[in-house]
Amino acid sequence: xxxxxxxxxxxxxxxxxxxxxxxxxxxxxxxxxxxxxxxxxxxxxxxxxxxxxxxxxxxxxxxxxxxxxxxxxxxxxxxxxxxxxxxxxxxxxxxxxxxxxxxxxxxxxxxxxxxxxxxxxxxxxxxxxxxxxxxxxxxxxxxxxxxxxxxxxxxxxxxxxxxxxxxxxxxxxxxxxxxxxxxxxxxxxxxxxxxxxxxxxxxxxxxxxxxxxxxxxxxxxxxxxxxxxxxxxxxxxxx
Length: 239
Hints:
By secondary structure, the protein is mainly alpha-helical. The protein has two domains: 19-107, no CATH class; 108-239, Hypothetical protein af1432 (Orthogonal Bundle), CATH 1.10.3210.10. Helices cover 71% and strands 0% of the residues. The chain is built from 13 helices and no strands. Helix 1 (8-16) packs parallel to helix 11 (178-199) and helix 9 crosses helix 13. The longest helix has 26 residues, at 112-137. It starts with 7 loop residues before the first helix and ends with a helix. It comes from Paraferrimonas haliotis.
């Protein structure tokens, strides 16, 4: 990393340790995390999710994409309860976090908003390719739901780097060149992703699978979400 780009990295790391910087005051997410931690029922988790109509709609959309069992209830709270039971608490929280990250990162200044949208579009493209690969594998040990949720965080580091750069530039009138950002993202994307995941208290399984996908963790298991994602990232020149 050049001397010009090096001072940017510690400033980004500092911001990644402040959840409010990229999540804002998301009471629903905070309440959901606390409810899961204290072992609340699926019905109680559903009430929290239903307090945010946009989050509720997003989870319904995700549910239809990953093709879990059909919902039999018509009442929204009962529908969400059934979705949570099918997804599991862990994946429900992952998707809620992905939703708020995506929503907040669309309000960046330019050119960061445009670059952020590009990363989200690439995320969806990789997700689709990964699910198609999972369907072809027909391996009963592979959980497509976990693969899908893993894909939502594959560019967490670059996305939050863009958010941090946008904030730093607006606060200090600092000019951050695209070359500086490119260096930080290319050399630190996994490390910054892992730092953010730990700070957000996301489950260890997601951190582990992301490490496998980025070739940072050996595994003796023949098929995992991370192993299936790895060749896709390689083909796209992202490793």
